[in-house]
Write a structure and sequence with these properties.
Layout lengths: L9 H12 L3 H12 L3 H28 L6 H9 L1 H34 L4 H20 L2 H29 L2 H6 L11 H16 L4 H4 L7 H30 L2 H6 L3 H7 L5 H23 L1 H9 L18 H17 L3 H30 L12 H20 L1 H22 L2
Amino acid sequence: MSQLRRRLNLFGLTMIAVGSCIGAGIFVTPGEVAADLPHAGYLLMVWAIGGLVALTGALTFAELAGRFPLSGGVYVYLREAYGKLTAFAYGWAILFIINTGSMAALALAFSQYLNELIPLSYNGQLSVAIGLLIVLTLINCLGVEQSQRLTSSLTVSKLLGILAVVMLAFFFSSPERGSQLWSLQEQVPTPLATVLLSALVGVLWSFGGWHHASYVAGEAIHPQRTVPRAMLLGTAIVTLTYLLINLAYLLLFDPAQMAASERIAAEAVDSVWRGGGNWVAGLVAISIAGTLAIYCMSAPRIYFAMAQDKSFVPAIAHLHPRFRTPVRAMLLQCVWAIVLIFFWGNIHDLLHYVVFMDILFMAMAAIALFQFRQRMGNSQGYRVWGYPIIPLVFIGISLAFCVNKLITEPIHALVGFGVIIIGLPVFLLQSDR
């Protein structure tokens, strides 16, 4: 028996979509975005634009998920549209760049925030990061039901924590600061279009992850209905959450103060509640752990699908006889993430090419929808509203982002392509068998 168990319900899938987006980013990137766009009104606007971009993506991928309700998500869409080689390139990038790179960064970020509560040496922080990866991987190995309980509880906890921060800001803010937020006339940054695109980089990174719900479609109950709904609901929840938390920051700080802050959430709470920064450090640690738990769970379904397609080492297609989870795929991912923790020099640079490769493949998957419509006709399940405008908006913005990264920071893209090229012999060896 090589089938995964269908145990994930709509709530669990929605929490995966939400939790994979809301990690450490929203507690850090608002300051970076404010540095690029030091204007309260336009700052809120760019986060709203990010939400609209994510929504166009979720609408597009909802139809893809309805057409192919199988484990692997984007991997499956790329395989059906472009063949096994392109799908393998994506899976290889997920394993060695995108997902494991994000996991290593999240684990290190968790240890750094924990260090604010419990002082740790450098080696102690490394040990905590590695230990967290191992523990979350092992929990996810115990079955999809345990994964669903863990991710749902951590995601609900982080949403409640963010709501508390928002309520504090609304309660303690002055009416004068609130009235200043809605002015778009004063001190407009120029050139506005260029500034908005620059600020959008951090915004899109913070919105990334909602498609993780599609990775586990093979374990979803009624996947043709629940997976599309989960991605749409998740994107809407994340957009509302991000707008509220940025509004909370702006009710307490002006954009210049936000830009100068490296710990915007902690400093915002500290400004109205002495000692509240420690509580925020705990909240961020919980948020990071929740996102990391989802990453440990979701992406191994891609490696599992690759092995089943005979595009990857066949042993990775093994399921635990009792828990029906791709244990070997999970352990492989965990080991490589640990390797990255030891060998990374600059987390910032790695995350930049993580984002580039991720968005590039997402754009390719969205383009595939046009091929599926022509080849297969209308979907029997969910059909994207506003076709073809909605998919074209997502594709256009995604490709514009990738082109901008190629021009401004080509080294990140080249390193990503280099890692994929290294994996091609593995694909060729497996395909010859």
